[in-house]
Amino acid sequence: MTRREFLSAMAGLTLIGIGGYPFVRRWMSSQGPLSLPSPPTVAWNGNIKTFRYVIQRGPVTLQDGTRFTGYLINGQFPGPELRVQEGDKVQVTVVNQLDQPTTLHWHGVNAPSPMDGVPGISQDPVLPGQSFTYEFIASPAGTRWYHSHVYEMEQVPNGLFGPLIIEPKTTPEPYPTQHELTLMFSTWGYKPGAGIDYGMMGNTGMGQMMGGGGNLSSSNQGLTHLVNGKIPTSLQSIKVAPREKLRLRLINASGTESYLLAIDGGTMLVTHTDGNPLQAPRVVSELYIAPAERYDVIVTPPRSGTWYLRSSLAGQESVRIPFSTVGEVKSSPAVGANSWSYLITGSNSFGSLPAVNHSVQLVLSGGMMMGGAWTINGASYPNTSPVKVRTGERIRLEMVNRSMMEHPMHLHGHSFAITSFNGRVLNSPLIKDVVNLKPMERCTIDFLANNPGNWFFHCHNLQHMVGGLATVIEYKDYPLPHVDKWM
Ligand code: C2O
Ligand code: CU
Question: Does ligand 1 have an atom closer than 6 angstroms to the CB of 417?
Fold first, then answer.
C-alpha cells in the first residue's frame, strides 16, 4: 500500500488519543539519540488535525548536569515535532498553565493574522489559566517552526519552540530520501549583547567581514549550544548506511547565534531555503545559518566510521553532531564545493528587478553607537513607521544594514523572494521568510500582499527585536487596528 492509499484509507476516521500519526514514511526524530516525540493527536478527522499543548514550568536537566526550570509543552523540552500535510486544517489548543501570558507564532506559515501570536499586533496573549485554539491551514509545505512570541527572551530559549513540518501533497517528492532527521539548533542561557559583533573583532578587515566565513567568532561563552534540546557532544552517534541519502532539516532556533555548518570531508546538497524548494539544488561545502533560518540538505556518508556535522565558528566547538556509517564507504565524494550564499544560484549586476507597485526603504542601524537601541529609519519600535500596503500589491522592501551586527530580518504571514543582494540581481530569486544582513550588506525582498492583516517585521536576534529593530506591515484594507503595545 502506498502512503497516499494508506492516507486515503485513513481519511474519514476519527482516531482518539493515539500517539502521533501512523505515517508510513520513517523519520528519525521520533527515535534515536535526538528524539523529539510528536504531540498526541487529540482528533484526526479527514484533514482536520487537532492537538493539545499543555504549557507549564518544569525541571529540565541537561547532559552536563545543568538544571533549570524550563517552559515545557506536554512535559517536553523543547516542544514536540508537529507534522502535518499541506492543506490540512491544523488546530492546536494551547492550555496556559504558566503564571504569565504566552502565545505561539507559526513561523513561516501563512496563517490568518488573528492566529499569528504577536500581542498588540495580531493576537491578544493567552493569559494564565486560559486556553486558546490556534487554527490554520498548513501552508506552504516545508520546514517551518513555532515559538512563543511573548517574553521571548525567557520563554523561547527555555523551551517554547519546536519544529513544524508540513509535508508536501505533491507526489513524488522532488528530492526523495529514505530517512530524514530534524536538527533544531538553539542556545540556552543569557548573555547581553549576544550574537556575532563585527565591531568587536579587532583587526578583522572589511574584506573578511563581507566574506562571511573565516574566523568569525561568537562572543558567547555564557551560552550552552543545544541540538533538539540536547548537548550534541553527549550524543551517541546517529547510524547511517553507506550509500544512504539522509535529509536533514536544519532549523536555527537560537535567539542570537548563527552557525557555520559543515560535514567533515563531505558536502551537503541544499534543496530548500526556509522550507521552500530551490529551482535547482546546490552542493555546498559549508552553510551559514542565521537565527530563524532553515535549510533542508541531503547528505551521504563521506567516509566509513564516525564523522561529524559541526559548526566551525570559534566558540562553537561543542556544536558537533556525531554520525557513524554502518558499513564501508568506498569512494569519497568530490570536494571543492563553494560555501552557501544567497547569490549561489547566479546573479548579475546589470539585471533588472521585477516590477512592483510599491517600494519602501528601510535602513537598519543602532547598537553600541546608539546606546543599545536598534532602529529602522532612525526610530525604534513602537515608534517606527508602519509599512502600509493594500491587498494585491507587489511590495518591495529595500534594506541596508548600517550597524556592526548582523540582522536576520523576518516577515510574518508571507514568504518573500530575495530579488537582489549587495547590488546583484538574483537570476532565480530565493524564496524565504528570513533574510540575514551582515554589516553594510543590502538587499531587496519582494512579496505579494495576499494575506490581509497586521504583520510583524523584525530582526530575529531577540535582543535586537526587543531593542526596537521591528516594524509592522499594515494592510490599509484590513479593519482591525494594531495597538503597538509591547508585551
Ligand atoms: Cu519567528 Cu516574529 O518570529
Ligand atoms: Cu538584529
Answer: no
Specify the ligand 1 atom closest to the Cα of 412.
2
Q: How far is the CA of 9 from the centre of ligand 1 (A)?
A: 37
Average pLDDT, the chain: 87
Set of cell numbers at residue 330: 568506498
Q: What is the pLDDT of residues 67-115, one digit of tens each?
A: 999 999 999 999 999 999 999 999 999 999 999 999 999 999 999 999 9
**How do beta strands 434-437 and 407-411 pair?**
antiparallel
Pairing mode, if any, of strands 179-188 and 246-252? parallel
**Last residue within a domain, chosen from 132, 167, 202:** 167
The domain containing residue 388 runs over which residues? 3-33+347-475
Q: Whose CA is nearest to atom 1 of ligand 1?
A: 107
Answer with the one of 167, 194, 222 that is the final residue of a domain: 167
Q: Is the pTM of this model over 0.85?
A: yes
CB 274: neighbour CB atoms within 10 A?
26
The SS3 call for residue 182 is strand
Confidence band, pLDDT 50/70/90 cuts, at residue 60:
very high
Determine the Cα–Cα distance for residues 212 and 341; give it in Å rounded to an integer.
9
Report, as an integer, the average pLDDT of 310-329. 94
State if residue 396 touches ligand 1 by the CB under 6 angstroms criterion.
no
Whether residues 401 and 428 fall in one domain: yes
Kindly provide the b/e burial profile for residues 120-159, where b requires at least 16 CB atoms within 10 angstroms of the residue's own CB.
bbbbebbeeeeebebbbbbbbbbbbbbbbbbbbeebbbbb
Q: Can you tell me the distance from the alpha carbon of 414 to that of 447, in angstroms, rounded to the nearest whole number?
A: 7
- Name the closest-CA residue to atom 3, ligand 1: 107
